[in-house]
Amino acid sequence: MASNVLAQIYVFNRTKVALSWRSNADINREMSMNKVSGTAGFMAMKGDGYYSKATIGAKHVMDKAASLVLDAVARMDPADDGSIFRATDMGAADGGTSVDLWRRVFRDVRARVPSRPIEMIYTDLPRNDFAQVFRMIHGQTDINSYYPEIDDLYVFASGTSFHQNIFPAQTLDLGFSATASHYISATPCNISDHVHMVGASGAERAAFTRQGAADWETMLLQRTRELKSGGRLCLFNFGIDEEGRYLGNTGGVSMFDMFNKFWRDLADDGVITQAEYLNTNFPQHYRTVEEFTAPLNDKTSPVYKAGLRLEQVETRLVRCPFEQDFTENHRDAARFAVEYLPTLRSWSEATFLGGLDAGRDEAGREAIMNEFYGRYQASVAAAPEGHAMDYVHAYLVCRKEA
């Protein structure tokens, strides 16, 4: 990555790491009212532009694999018949990480089908910062929007989980999701000695595996129902690759083990309660390639019977940009720690907040979060070698048969 880009990220992290993105008072109120259950009740990426600025590795994943989407559109060979061409980005967060991928895709679609209006629908959970999505689209942020460049383009949003129906049947041309479908609809159980299923074992690990399989099948069935015949579904999913690697665990320090260590330390130190430690579980399941492809290859599965077919699958590792810059360029451990922690915080904080007792006040919750991520940052600064949030994805492209 160019040093000037990292310098911009570094300034952002130094000045806005404590950015108020979603009121903790709102979280307390919603949880105490118990109006929403499962993952949708608390999950959201950090808003107000924090996510896309801090999580530039997610953008690299999409930018480097945009050709898979372009190739899928080429195989689709859409007719220039004047009908609406509908695309969706599911689990889009603030939209900033995928903006350049969509610029390339919509330029290609517009060239192929000049008579067809294009609809773009961003989807995410109800607590997502959709205001930031539209600010970005309409050029009110420092992100270069594709919107002014594409004629006859209409942008919408849906606060609906991809585990549910989003579109009417047979109305979707191109479905896309990146770095999102590892989220499950609900945590099936508490993990007794870890915060993530990769650290679970026995019956607890099996419960997450079952939940992950059920939600994956549901997600694929929903999209199959929504896709037009010949439509494509492109999914870039966090997973476990053929070498057993997964996000933040690619040969160095395990990120999820570090999360667990510092959250466990807070419980041991009395900063949080033992119950809060046990109630903190990432609502995620990291699938293997075999688990991803099982419902697509099994001719008896509901997904296969519904007409969804696997066109291609592969795994890739995209290196953590902050670790890469530290290792190859500046070698400043304190700077690396300051740059690195916000990308972890941008997507993980909601889970840790969700584990805290709803009776805690806003100031107390914020103090716990700052202490937690502060301990992690200090540890990285003191011994930076091996820390990296390398991205490990399984890339699937599927088509809906006639």
Q: How many domains?
A: 1
Note the main sheet: 8 strands, mixed
Q: Which band does the percent of strand residues land in?
A: 15-25%
Q: What is the CATH class?
A: Alpha Beta
- The CATH H-level superfamily is Vaccinia Virus protein VP39
SSE order in H/E notation?
Answer: HHHHHEHEHEEHEHHEHHEHHHE
- Mean pLDDT, rounded to whole units? 89
If classified by CATH, what would the architecture be? Answer: 3-Layer(aba) Sandwich
Helix content: 40-55%
Number of helix segments? 15
Q: What is the CATH topology descriptor?
A: Rossmann fold
General description of the model:
The protein has a single domain, classed as Rossmann fold, CATH 3.40.50.150. It is of the alpha/beta class and 402 residues long. 46% of the residues lie in helices and 15% in strands. It contains 15 helices and eight strands. Helix 14 runs antiparallel to helix 15. Strands 1, 2, 3, 4, 5, 6, 7 and 8 form an eight-stranded mixed beta sheet that branches. The N terminus is likely disordered.
Break the fold down into its secondary structure elements and pairings.
Elements lengths: L2 H14 L7 H10 L16 H5 L1 H9 L1 H11 L8 E6 L8 H14 L5 E6 L6 H8 L15 E6 L13 E7 L23 H25 E14 L14 H14 L5 H5 L8 E2 H9 L4 H5 L1 E11 L2 H10 L2 H23 L6 H21 L8 E10 L2
Parallel strand pairs: 1-2, 1-4, 2-3, 4-5, 5-6
Antiparallel strand pairs: 5-8, 7-8
Helix pairs in contact: 1-14, 5-6, 9-15, 13-14, 14-15
Provide a short characterization of the protein structure.
With 402 residues, the chain is α/β, with parallel strands linked by helices. It has helices spanning 3-16, 24-33, 50-54, 56-64, 66-76, 99-112, 130-137, 202-226, 255-268, 274-278, 289-297, 302-306, 321-330, 333-355, 362-382; strands at residues 85-90, 118-123, 153-158, 172-178, 227-240, 287-288, 308-318, 391-400.
